């Protein structure tokens, strides 16, 4: 790697957790992506790419855009799909000390690419592992543990409050993916974890599936 004998360096995961003698067996597994840096918080000089390998649930392949857990027959299902996407933002911003900002933008400018629905919030952000878990179909927000916790980590079911928004829309980890593929053919998640300088991006494509 071209490291001088007297040069200090660290090896970290994409979540910036340092690999040491004590953490090696916990952090280093087959297929894991590691950084070789001068320090744990070193700024990356260029973008890196990490391939996510998982076996998609068959529903991802054959039912993309279908919604099995709420009745939409005879109804306009678009509000349900948007509600699922907003649910992620509600959970992500639930611990904000200041203003909770959630925006929905409908993009139709052909010069900027294909039409899209963008949901933007100022939540706590997701690590690369949390984005990985979001991609895995049917990984419930209540069962994601440890370093593989989801964007719903620490979720506490809110008390029922009339006429208010909480994060109690989706339970089973299927809503976001179903909503995305109902609205369009691909999803792009861009997230910067709080207290981190790294920006993570995840792309899911129905065509690739």
Automatic annotation (TrEMBL):
Membrane-spanning intervals of the chain: none
Signal peptide: none
Superkingdom assignment: Eukaryota
Any single GO BP term: double-strand break repair
Stored Gene3D superfamilies: Histidine kinase-like ATPase, C-terminal domain
Matches recorded under Pfam families: HATPase_c_3
Family annotation (SUPFAM superfamilies): ATPase domain of HSP90 chaperone/DNA topoisomerase II/histidine kinase (SSF55874)
Record's protein name: Structural maintenance of chromosomes flexible hinge domain-containing protein 1
Species this protein is from: Buceros rhinoceros silvestris
């Amino acid at each position: 790697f071209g490291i001088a004998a007297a040069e200090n360096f660290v090896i970290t995961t994409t979540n910036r957790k340092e690999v040491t003698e004590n953490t090696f067996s916990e952090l280093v597994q087959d297929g894991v992506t590691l950084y070789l840096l001068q320090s744990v918080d070193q700024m990356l000089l260029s973008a890196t790419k990490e391939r996510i390998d998982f076996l998609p649930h068959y529903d991802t392949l054959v039912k993309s855009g279908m919604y099995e857990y709420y009745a939409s027959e005879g109804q306009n299902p678009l509000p349900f799909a948007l509600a699922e996407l907003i649910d992620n933002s509600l959970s992500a911003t639930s611990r904000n000390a200041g203003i909770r900002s959630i925006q929905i933008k409908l993009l139709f400018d052909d010069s900027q690419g294909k039409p899209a629905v963008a949901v933007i919030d100022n939540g706590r952000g997701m690590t690369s592992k949390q984005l990985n878990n979001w991609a895995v179909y049917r990984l419930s927000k209540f069962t994601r543990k440890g370093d593989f916790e989801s964007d719903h980590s620490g979720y506490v079911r809110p008390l029922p409050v009339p006429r208010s928004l909480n994060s109690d829309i989706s339970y089973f980890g299927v809503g976001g993916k179903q909503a995305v593929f109902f609205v369009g053919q691909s999803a792009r998640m861009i997230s910067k974890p709080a207290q981190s300088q790294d920006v993570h991006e995840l792309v899911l494509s129905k065509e690739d599936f």
